Amino acid sequence: MKVNILTVLLAMTSMMACQNTDDKKTASSADGAPPQVQTPVTAVPAPQTQVEPSNSSAAVDPEKRNPAFVGRWQGVEWSFMGKPSGLDASQVFWTFRADGTFKSNYADQHKQGTWRTTKDSLYTKDIKMPKEVPSKILLLNDKLLDLQYNVKGQKEIIKYKKLKD
After folding, report:
1. pLDDT for 151
2. How is the chain split among helix, strand and coil, in percent rounded to 5?
3. DSSP 69
């Protein structure tokens, strides 16, 4: 049975994002105190460059995208819960465009949609999915990108290298 890994990963991460959002709205401790909020890890700061918006209707506000993402990335390492996943990371590709659109490929699976960033997170929204999928930016520079995904409460990390145009 062939499993569509990228679709499963995107769907599971999207479901977890929805569940985590709902949990934050309703969670409280036994003594009625509000839930504690974890402080996010700070990612590598974005270079200060001006990004021109496109006329595309799918474009995202350029001030909400880190220009260091723009380009083509290929997976080099894929781990799950700190151990090798056994999946071929070199088959994972992302192309982030300055207009806020992306394409991703894993083997014969192809996705496209929009992307945006915050200080420490990347959010992607596949055109076929109802919600954005968050991933935590662990490392970002002009050559390397490490993203952490939360798959049902389990940490999955994919490390990428930037490809030359």
Report:
1. 86
2. 20, 40, 40
3. G
pLDDT tens-place string over residues 78-93: 999 999 999 999 999 9
The letter for the amino acid at 70 is: V
Alpha-carbon dihedral 121, 46, 73, 60, rounded to 10 degrees: 70
Residue ranges of the chain with pLDDT lower than 70? 1-63
Q: Which two tokens stand for residue 84?
A: 């090798």
Q: Which CATH class is domain 5-24+66-163?
A: mainly beta
Supply 69's token pair: 């993402």
- Domains of the chain by residue range: 5-24+66-163
* Number of C-beta neighbours around residue 26 at 10 A: 7
Q: Which two tokens stand for residue 86?
A: 């056994």
86: left (phi over 0), alpha (psi -120 to 50) or beta: left
